[in-house]
Design goal:
single chain; mainly alpha; globular
C-alpha cells in the first residue's frame, strides 16, 4: 500500500515523496538505510524507485512482496498516464497547456533539490560520503559527463575508498 500511495501521488516523479513515505510514515528504513538503499537502487539498471520497491518488497515478503510493491507502484500511474496522454494529444498545442508544463518542470526541479538537501543532512558527518557526492556532482553537473560514464568510474572508486578506509557501519 505504501508503494501504491507513492504511485498515486507521485506526479512528476516520486523523488519528493519516497523518503517521506518509506522513512517517516512507514518506518521501513531509517535515514541512513534509506540513503544507502536509494544509492544502491540508483546504480542498478532501471528506475531507482522501482528498484527500491522490489528490494523492500523482497526484504519484507520475499518474491510475492517484491511483486506486490512493484504492482502497487506502477498500477495507478499507468492508468492515469493513459488518460493524460489521451487528453494531451488533443490539447497540447494550447498555450496554457505549454505554460503549465513549464511550471511543472520547475516544481519537479524543486522537489529534487529538496530531497537532495535532506539526504545530505543525513550523511553530513561522513566525510567520505560528502567527497564522493561532490565528485559525482562535479562529474555529472560541472563536467557534464553522462551518468553511465560517471557511475562507471565513481562506483568502483567509492567502493575501493570505503574498503581501504576500513569503514564499518
Amino acid at each position: 500500500m505504501a508503494f501504491f500511495k507513492l504511485g498515486l501521488i507521485g506526479f512528476g516523479g516520486v523523488a519528493g515523496w519516497v523518503r517521506q513515505i518509506i522513512v517517516v510514515e512507514r518506518g521501513f528504513l531509517d535515514e541512513r538505510e534509506f540513503a544507502e538503499w536509494l544509492g544502491f537502487a540508483s546504480v542498478l539498471p532501471g528506475a531507482n524507485t522501482v528498484n527500491l520497491a522490489v528490494m523492500l518488497g523482497d526484504r519484507h515478503q520475499g518474491a510475492s512482496g517484491a511483486f506486490a510493491a512493484l504492482l502497487g507502484l506502477l498500477m495507478a500511474p499507468i492508468i492515469i498516464l493513459i488518460g493524460i496522454v489521451s487528453l494531451f494529444d488533443r490539447f497540447a498545442s494550447l498555450p496554457d497547456v505549454s505554460a503549465a508544463l513549464g511550471g511543472a518542470a520547475a516544481a519537479t526541479a524543486g522537489l529534487v533539490i529538496g530531497n537532495a538537501y535532506k539526504m545530505i543532512r543525513t550523511i553530513r558527518t561522513d566525510v567520505l560520503a560528502i567527497l564522493i557526492a561532490g565528485l559525482t556532482f562535479a562529474a555529472t553537473g560541472a563536467l557534464r559527463l553522462s551518468l553511465v560514464a560517471s557511475l562507471t568510474f565513481i562506483v568502483p572508486l567509492s567502493l575501493l575508498v570505503y574498503v581501504a578506509s576500513g569503514w564499518r557501519r
